[in-house]
């Protein structure tokens, strides 16, 4: 890879995540200032959808921070950032419904979610150690060590890729539940979808960058063996 291509590559992997983060923050900021016509808080939205689906054992809890919202499968808890938990914005309702979508996946043992959970240990190990192994392999000229690093990196990349259907499915469930339960009106569907799509974009960007990094190291490995 020439210097020019190398610089373009690094510009891309830096710009894509930053752009995606700006996109989601912009959409969230805009629609967090738009009150939902239902007047329901994020906590009420989450509780209603959970109850409508018989998930009475899943709790809804506030958590500090902004956009720290998540579903904890071990505690069976939907945790919403305080602004979304107590507020009644379109953005807050969308985020709450999305996290409940994960609770629904968990209850149904959604295949991609189960697969992602199974990947967590190896993905964590791969993301933490793959670069160290790769650098050591290249410095010592050991192609076998480089290949091992690529395998560990591939596990982490697979986790990123499997995350995509999990997140898109949760957003799809969120839209369906909010519409069917009357939480949002027809004229609010477009605003809600913008929030959900912007959030999904961050996962797409992360997966794209991860795949690009993996491809780069695979090409370097091939070139290393060709030199031999």
Automatic annotation (TrEMBL):
What the entry lists under Pfam families is as follows: Zn_peptidase_2
Extract the coiled-coil ranges from the record.
none
Keywords in alphabetical order, please.
Membrane, Transmembrane, Transmembrane helix
Q: Which InterPro entries does the UniProt entry name for this protein?
A: Zn_peptidase_2
TM segments? 6-22, 118-139, 145-168, 200-222
Question: Is Transmembrane helix a UniProt keyword of this protein?
Answer: yes
Matching entries from PANTHER family are given as: MEMBRANE PROTEASE YUGP-RELATED
| Name of the protein in question | Zinc metallopeptidase
Organism the protein comes from: Alkalihalobacterium chitinilyticum
């Amino acid at each position: 890879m020439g210097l020019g291509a190398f610089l373009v590559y690094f510009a891309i992997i830096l710009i894509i995540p930053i752009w995606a983060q700006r996109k989601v923050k912009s959409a969230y900021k805009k629609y967090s200032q738009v009150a939902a016509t239902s007047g329901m808080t994020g906590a009420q939205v989450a509780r209603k959808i959970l109850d409508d689906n018989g998930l009475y054992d899943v709790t809804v809890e506030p958590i500090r921070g902004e956009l720290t919202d998540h579903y904890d499968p071990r505690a069976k808890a939907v945790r919403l950032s305080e602004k979304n938990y107590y507020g009644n914005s379109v953005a807050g309702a969308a985020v709450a419904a999305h996290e409940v979508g994960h609770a629904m996946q968990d209850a149904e043992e959604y295949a991609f979610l189960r697969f992602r959970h199974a990947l967590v240990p190896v993905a964590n190990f791969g993301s933490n150690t793959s670069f160290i192994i790769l650098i050591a392999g290249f410095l010592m000229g050991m192609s076998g060590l480089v290949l091992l690093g690529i395998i560990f990196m591939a596990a982490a990349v697979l986790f990123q890729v499997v995350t995509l259907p999990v997140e898109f499915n949760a957003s799809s469930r969120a839209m369906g539940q909010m519409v069917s339960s009357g939480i949002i009106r027809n004229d609010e569907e477009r605003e809600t979808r913008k929030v959900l799509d912007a959030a999904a974009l961050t996962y797409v960007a992360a997966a794209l960058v991860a795949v690009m990094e993996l491809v780069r190291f695979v090409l370097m490995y091939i070139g290393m063996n060709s030199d031999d």
